[in-house]
Amino acid sequence: MSRIGKKSVKLPAGVSAAVSGQTVEVKGPKGTLNFTATDDISIVVANDEVSVVPRSKSKRARQQWGMSRTCIQNLVTGVTEGFKKELEINGVGYRATVQGTTLKLSLGFSHEVNFEVPAGVTVTSPKNTIIFVEGIDSQLVGQVAANIREWRKPEPYKGKGIKYKDEYIFRKAGKKK
């Protein structure tokens, strides 16, 4: 039995949810998001709560149960608070600037990297070594942050590169004489 799936998702004030078939649409102050569940589960909205129930006792239904409940919780969190990832840039001469919908990264290449920010995500750089990725869709925010980090992953010797704020870089010893 899924411990997460058993809990219902509570809808805070100002948030509404509607189910049509297997699609849940959540509207809130920051926008509208939707999620389409598989046929292995059923979704019920009642008394400002969204409940997820498996339709059978198969392994796939039990797997989808907790995952679907978490995805619906992410929709509710996204339309009320939003999601935010913070990236740090370490390295001499490494910096970032935002110009319109383009993030310009100087990462030690012979050229400047221009990263086009997709719709639905806001990228800001208050300092030239810090990047904030914000939006209402958890998956999209995480994917954009991962795509930015992919340009220069942190290396283990000096720690140069782009890393998440709470990420720990395991350091290696350099050459020994």
TrEMBL record:
**What's the domain of life for this entry?**
Bacteria
Cellular-component GO terms for this entry: cytosolic large ribosomal subunit
Name all Large ribosomal subunit protein uL6 alpha-beta domain ranges: 12-82, 91-164
What's an example GO BP annotation here?
cytoplasmic translation
Which Gene3D superfamilies does this entry report, sorted A to Z? Ribosomal protein L6, alpha-beta domain (3.90.930.12)
Is Coiled coil given among the entry's keywords?
Answer: no
- Protein function: This protein binds to the 23S rRNA, and is important in its secondary structure. It is located near the subunit interface in the base of the L7/L12 stalk, and near the tRNA binding site of the peptidyltransferase center.
Family per similarity comment: Belongs to the universal ribosomal protein uL6 family.
Summarize the subunit comment.
Answer: Part of the 50S ribosomal subunit.
Q: What is this protein called?
A: Large ribosomal subunit protein uL6
| UniProt organism field | Falsihalocynthiibacter arcticus
Q: What is the lineage of its organism?
A: Bacteria, Pseudomonadati, Pseudomonadota, Alphaproteobacteria, Rhodobacterales
Name the gene for this chain: rplF
